[in-house]
Amino acid sequence: MSNCIAGENFELGFSAVRSTLEQLEIWYRELYAENKILWDIISEIDDEAIWRKLLTTLINKYRNHSNALIIQIIRRLLENENYSVALLALNHLLRISNDEEPSETLQLAIPLILEHMLSIEISDVDEMDRLLITTMGWIKNSAGSKLRASVHKYLVANHAKLFQFTADTNSPDLILAYLYTLLNFECYSLMREMLEYLLYKEWPFLDAKLQEEQFAHFLWLTSYLSMDDLLLEVSKQSNHLIEQSNLPELILYKKYNAAKNRGQNDDKTLNDIVALMTQGLIFEEHEKVKLWNEIIKFQQEKIIAPAYTSEVQTNVKKTDNIWQIKNKTDHCPQCIQSKLVNIQVSVEGFTKKSPQAQKLVILELLTCERCQKIYAYDSLKQELYRAIAPYRCRVELDPLEYPQKKAVTKPIKPVANKVIGKRITPIGSEYFKWPSTEAKESQGQTNKESNYRDESSLHRLGYRITGLNRTQRWNILVNKAIPQITLKEIAYTIAHNIRLRKAQPGGQTKFSYAIGEWEHDLKQLKAEYYKSNFTWPHY
In whole angstroms, how far apart are CA 211 and each of 128, 137, 207? Predict the structure, then answer.
């Protein structure tokens, strides 16, 4: 009897639980549907003031999960192509991350968000440029946050794509935004690589459209890397601004270089220079510290140099002979028994042009107290290079730690008889029609497919417009591409790139240099390799 009652009670209890779960499921579906409707309504709002209030409220209310929440919001906004508000949320993410250590989820999400933001294509070219410049500004500002490491990793890994993408736009503001990003992350070699390409290849197109503030930015960036002489040499239309402009930053450049060349650092000259530095408004404060480091040093030569030099000579050992040793080495390679100890040393940085030191840094390296030689592990050497950048110092491999390898003489192989002639690409026996490069400019949203997001076989072999001249590209096409991929694929890939750029709003003007170079290569390929009236042989 008791068993029957217990069974009935169990059934009743189970039914009640099941009924409760069903009710909870109904409520969840209703709430989810209502939230979706609410989200769809909110995501259509373009009022940034409303979004600022909403984001601040959400962050304050869900502080323990704010990163995950903002990432989810950014993802939804990007799906709805609400890019301006996504950037607003991204700025909130930067502020949150400064208060706490970034989670692994956040570090993984950042590259995906940046990839999406830098791949946007909308019909309004001016708005697209604004969004790209703002995104680049966010990347630059992240250099001073706890997200620096993950963003730096993304920047270095994607530099080739970002370099090509940015340079191809011929937009001075976007190019400057990327250069300042590299400056903030101390990527000086990447910065130099891009400036060299711009000055040797793209400058005629940029020179014709530069405003005086943009020219001043380029002038001081190249001056920082000792490339300003090259800039002034290739600037046919904008270098007159140095003589005619009233912009403090351009007057400062002219006055400082004149004083430096004459060795003139009297009180009046220094006061004029300080006044111009104070009047300058186009640089942020931390940018002034970097870009005008040489000017500050020039001033200090009169104001504080004697006391500083005396202190360095008295307390810190100065060296210009540094030897690199292997990381596990803890004894002097020369003296063997003498253990290496830490020491503060001063090292001077130089440029190729001038034997006079341009920068002095003090840091901790290793020394042998017996022979007094100064040593550095690879990690210490890299730290030294970062500290002394953009100038240079010499670190040599210790000959005992890194003995020179003896040259191995290889036997000379007999040269086989070859038939010398044009290379023939193994494209198979079928005929193909040479691709067209004609494309109408799109009036609406352009095709999402682009070289920035999808890498072609041709690009993987090293073929690109950015950083290569016509001879270098032709060598890649003849010696790498044609032996490995079909002529048809090569021609259609290049033609696709041309059509893609031409179809974008304003693309004919915006990408004129890249389009012209691609069409030159395509024309040369057709003249040298394409025959439409015979079957290609296999080799």
Answer: 20, 20, 9
Backbone phi, then psi, for 414, in 5-degree steps?
Answer: -65, 140
Q: What is the pLDDT of residue 533?
A: 45
Cα distances (Å, whole numbers) of residue 263 to 18, 275, 298, 303, 349: 90, 19, 10, 15, 20
pLDDT the model gives residue 34: 47
Kindly give the residue spans of alpha helices, DSSP state H, lying in 188-283.
188-197, 203-207, 212-224, 228-234, 241-244, 248-262, 267-279
| Neighbouring C-beta atoms of residue 206, cutoff 10 Å | 23
Q: How far apart are CA 384 and CA 103, in angstroms?
A: 30
SS3 325: coil
Partners of residue 376 on adjacent β-strands = 324
Token couple for 82: 């609400």
pLDDT tens profile 330-354? 778 777 667 788 888 888 877 766 6
Separation CA 481–CA 477 (nearest Å): 5
Q: What are the DSSP calls for 133-190, one per residue?
A: HHHHHHHHHGGGSTTHHHHHHHHHHTHHHHHHHHHHHT-HHHHHHHHHHHHHTT-HHH
CA dist., res. 332 & res. 39, Å (int): 67
pLDDT of residue 174: 92
pLDDT at 306: 35
Q: Is the peptide bond before 102 cis (omega within 30 degrees of 0)?
A: no
Q: Which own/partner pairs from 281-286 qualify as long-range (CB within 8 Å, at least 24 positions apart)?
A: 281/248, 282/213, 282/216, 282/217, 282/247, 282/249, 283/220, 283/249, 286/144, 286/184
Helix axis angle for 267-279 and 248-262, nearest 10°, is: 160
Q: Which residues of 435-452 are buried (b: 16+ CB within 10 A; e: fewer)?
A: bebebeeeeeebeeeebb
DSSP 8-state class, residue 244: H
Whether the Cβ atoms of residue 528 and residue 421 lie closer than 8 Å to each other: no
Those residues of the chain that have pLDDT short of 70 are 1-66, 95-100, 264-265, 299-315, 327-328, 336-337, 352-358, 404-431, 442-455, 531-539
Q: Nearest CA to 398 among 485, 464, 448, 332?
A: 332
Distance CA 291, CA 110 (A): 29
Q: What is the pLDDT of residues 93-108, one digit of tens each?
A: 776 655 567 778 888 8
**Got the DSSP string for 330-396?**
-B-TTTSSSBPEEEEEEEEEB-SS-SS--EEEEEEEEE-TTT--EEE-HHHHHHHHHHHTTSB--EE
Helices (H), 416-510: 457-460, 470-476, 482-484, 487-503, 507-510
Dist. CA 371–CA 338, nearest whole Å: 9
Bridge-based pairing state of the strands 317-318 and 374-376? unpaired
The strands making up 374-376's β-sheet, listed across from edge to edge, are 317-318, 341-349, 359-367, 374-376, 322-324, 395-397
Rounded Cα distance between 105 and 268, Å, is: 56
- Dmax of the chain from CA atoms? 114
Cβ-based neighbours of 240, under 8 Å, separated by 6 or more: none
Reported pTM: 0.53
